[in-house]
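Example for reference:
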Amino acid sequence: MKHELENAMALLERTPAALDALLRGLPEVWTETNEGGDTWSVSTVIAHLIHCENEDWMPRARFILRADEAEPFPPFDREGHVRYKGSKTLPQLLDEFARARRRAWRNCAR
């Protein structure tokens, strides 16, 4: 498959709705538990997606477009999702992810 921006956008813009349809309303046993140790729950993964949406993929895309090739990427906080998750419920996180993705598309169109 040839990778083109329109094809990627068609998938990326649907991600929040797809996750919402799959996850909203599931019992917490499916969304708040992990496999132990350093593993993540479903809600932690959604918090990670929010963090990446706000601080990683779009900012890095902008960085690539404006930066000198010799300039390294700014560091990414691999634990940044913790401050996005806080005590939020999964429905709150799903809503926040959808808002963040819409904001990213609006900014992308500029």
Notes: The longest helix spans residues 90-108.
